[in-house]
Amino acid sequence: MDINLIAIPAIELHWTDWYVWERLTLDARIDPNSVTPPNVSGVYEVRLNHQDERLTIGKAANLRRRVKQGLVKGKMPHSSGKDIRAHEDTTQIVIRWAETDRPAAVEEELHRRHKEIFGRLPKYTDRT
Fold first, then answer.
1. Where are the domains of the chain?
2. What strand order describes the sheet that includes 54-60?
3. Fold designation for 19-118
4. How far apart are CA 44 and CA 103, in angstroms?
């Protein structure tokens, strides 16, 4: 029998502040109040303002494209963005993100922790 031990090093996340959804809809070229995630890989969380439970937790090869263009603006396909835009009051939603070169591993752990606390995945997350 072959046995392998895989030691996965800790991943330290530096989360941004929570940003109001609407600030991500603004055009960064003309509006100084706009917020744009960086063009790097990472993870993001979406929740209703002042609530702990997340609406979605996701990973991205490019945070700007995934969060701003897909999730918020709907210019690209996004697994939960369409449902969030259709069923939630986006004026009450906040978003944050953290850069990481291991977004899949971090997303899996964030989903596990959410399930441990709330008994299920985030409302608009189908699978990990």
1. 19-118
2. 19-20, 93-99, 42-48, 54-60
3. GIY-YIG endonuclease (3.40.1440)
4. 9
